[in-house]
């Protein structure tokens, strides 16, 4: 899922300063799961902003809150069309995709990001998320025992490990596992160490230039429609 | 001959080679490079010029290597994969060769977060293995990575590094084999402090006949103080300093003298390790010790080839 972190309240206050009526808009998917932009966080942020206004003795905003199922799908944004008419800005707590969907759906509306979109990752334990995929568009997990060197090796190298590994950790931090040590150990467990002996040529970064677009094949569109 | 550099000739003639290292200044002073070069020139066969080592910005290794060349030394231009993509890498290699640089050494490069511009974008478009292969393609196939033809010859004596002590230790001979297959003509290893362990790695190397396909120069890092010994033991990747050596440094009345003594013992032992074709002395910021080490190790005068 997409992992985001909520921006500090003072940064959000500076962003909303010019706008009187603000819709705080949550998103019901990834950012709900990572406790940064779901219904609960929308409500907390609403309270925090009100409290900050009371403390500063300068009440200059009115807030509305709403959480849609997914901000990255236009059909869910249709549900807030009326509310959007009555505010000066939308403070989106969704990832950067959600915030931009709003900008595209409501061309006249000011959109403000309430979170920083961090990465694609997984929950490791309560309150801890780890990055696992960079969406490089050229997946090699079959060569690397299901552990991504592009994401998890700090240098993203294909013929690792470099000499910067010590006690199984990366030169960047004694807390960080060396991805290539993990790959080596798992390949060994799988009886596939021959994959470490191969030379992997330079990657094709052509899938990377942004922005990317994926076109579903006609048969998939016919069966599933454009939105699940 | 692949590039006909002094280093290549010394090694091909079967001599026990000595290489040293010069770190370029954090400034534009040619004199700073020339002064260091003057110290180590007559006691080495080639001199490495580091490429923004520890990710701290310094004069470029290409410029440093050219300054060395102008003084009659044989430079080994280090090139990291950290700061350039494959377009810049290939372009810089062509430029370096045009300027008379014959030895180029491929390394991944210390991560930029460890240096003085931690907010920089790390490139790592290709890795050190792929950089070795790239140089071999430019030289032997007259081809760029993309397959286009290179105009004319690109003579390079290709260098690489390896560490006998980095995890996973059991993989390090295989990784060396990968580098040799990719095209490494010579290897400079990370600093060796435990010759017994190093010799085990070398046994793996010679068993696979890799010493006949590449020249291995064992790394030497002169220790100045007990603090330095401890730091290398605890924090420097790829280096293994046995506690016994740290104790010797701690108990010494004159740490520099003890450090020198240890280095000479290590060099003496390394000369007897099968497959070792020379030493590479990394006296970071302590260049003055290099002539002393080489002389006391009985490795002077350097061969004229």
What would your notes on this structure say?
The complex is a heterodimer of chains A (228) and B (305). Chain A is of the alpha/beta class and 228 residues long. Chain A is 33% helix and 23% strand. Chain A has two domains: 118 residues, Rossmann fold (3-Layer(aba) Sandwich), CATH 3.40.50; 64 residues, no CATH class. In chain A, strand 6 and strand 7 form a beta hairpin. The two termini of chain A are 17 Å apart. The C terminus of chain A is likely disordered. Chain B has an eight-stranded parallel beta barrel, surrounded by seven helices. The mean pLDDT of chain B is 97. The chains are: A alpha/beta (228), B alpha/beta (305). At the A-B interface, strand 8 and helix 8 of A face helix 5 and helix 6 of B.
How are strands sequenced across the largest beta sheet of chain A? 3-2-4-5
Q: Which class best fits the helix and strand makeup of chain A? A: alpha/beta
Give the distance, in angstroms, between the N- and C-terminal Cα atoms of chain A.
17 Å
Q: Which chains make the largest contact?
A: A-B, 29 and 38 residues
- SSE order of chain B, as H and E? HEHEHEHEHEHEHEHHHEH
CATH architecture tag of the largest domain in chain A: 3-Layer(aba) Sandwich
Could you tell me the number of beta strands of chain A?
Answer: 10
Helix content of chain A: 25-40%
What distance lies between the first and last C-alpha atoms of chain B, to the nearest angstrom?
A: 13 Å
Rg of Cα set of chain B: 18 Å
Low-confidence spans of chain B: pLDDT under 50, at least 5 residues?
none
Characterize the biggest β-sheet of chain A: 4 strands, parallel
Helical stretch tally of chain B: 11
């Amino acid at each position: 899922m997409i992992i985001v972190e909520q921006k500090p309240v003072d940064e959000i206050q500076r962003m909303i300063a010019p706008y009187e009526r603000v819709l705080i808009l949550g998103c019901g998917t990834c950012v709900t799961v990572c406790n940064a932009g779901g219904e609960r966080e929308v409500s907390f942020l609403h309270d925090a902003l009100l409290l900050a206004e009371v403390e500063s003795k300068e009440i200059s905003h009115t807030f509305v809150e709403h959480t849609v199922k997914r901000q990255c799908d236009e059909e869910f944004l249709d549900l807030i069309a009326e509310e959007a008419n009555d505010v000066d800005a939308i403070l989106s707590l969704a990832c950067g995709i959600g915030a931009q969907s709003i900008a595209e759906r409501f061309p006249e509306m000011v959109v403000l990001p309430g979170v920083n979109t961090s990465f694609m990752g997984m929950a490791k334990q309560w309150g801890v998320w780890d990055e696992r995929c960079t969406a490089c568009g050229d997946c090699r997990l079959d060569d690397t025992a299901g552990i991504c060197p592009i994401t998890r090796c700090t240098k993203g190298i294909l013929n690792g490990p470099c000499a910067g590994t010590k006690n199984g950790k990366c030169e960047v931090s004694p807390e960080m596992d060396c991805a290539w040590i993990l790959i080596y150990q798992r390949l060994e467990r799988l009886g596939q160490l021959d994959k470490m002996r191969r030379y992997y040529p330079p990657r094709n970064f052509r899938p990377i230039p942004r922005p990317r677009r994926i076109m579903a094949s006609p048969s998939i569109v016919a069966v599933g429609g454009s939105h699940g | 001959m692949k590039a006909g550099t002094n280093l290549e000739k010394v090694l091909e003639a079967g001599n026990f080679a000595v290489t040293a290292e010069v770190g370029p200044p954090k400034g534009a002073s040619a004199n700073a490079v020339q002064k260091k070069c003057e110290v180590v020139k007559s006691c080495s066969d080639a001199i490495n010029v580091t490429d923004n080592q520890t990710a701290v910005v310094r004069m470029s290794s290409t410029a440093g290597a050219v300054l060395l060349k102008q003084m009659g030394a044989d430079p080994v231009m280090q090139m990291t994969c950290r700061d350039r993509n494959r377009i810049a890498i290939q372009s810089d290699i062509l430029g370096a060769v045009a300027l008379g640089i014959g030895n180029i050494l491929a390394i991944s490069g210390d991560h930029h977060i460890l240096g003085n511009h931690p907010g920089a974008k790390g490139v790592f478009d290709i890795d050190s293995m792929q950089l070795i292969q790239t140089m071999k393609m430019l030289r032997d196939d007259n081809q760029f990575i993309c397959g286009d033809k290179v105009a004319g010859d690109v003579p390079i004596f290709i260098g690489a590094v390896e560490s006998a002590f980095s995890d996973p230790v059991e993989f390090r001979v295989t990784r060396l084999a990968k580098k040799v297959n990719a095209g490494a003509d010579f290897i400079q290893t990370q600093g060796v402090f435990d010759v017994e362990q190093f010799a085990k790695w070398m046994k793996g190397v010679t068993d696979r006949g890799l010493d006949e396909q590449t020249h291995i120069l064992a790394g030497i890092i002169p220790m100045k103080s007990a603090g330095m010994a401890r730091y290398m033991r605890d924090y420097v990747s790829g280096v293994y300093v046995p506690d016994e050596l740290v104790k010797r440094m701690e108990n010494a009345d004159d740490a520099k003298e003890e450090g020198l003594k240890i280095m000479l013992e290590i060099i003496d032992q390394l000369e007897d390790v099968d497959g070792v074709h020379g030493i590479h002395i990394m006296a970071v910021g302590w260049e003055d010790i290099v002539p002393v080490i080489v002389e006391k190790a009985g490795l002077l005068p350097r061969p004229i080839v």
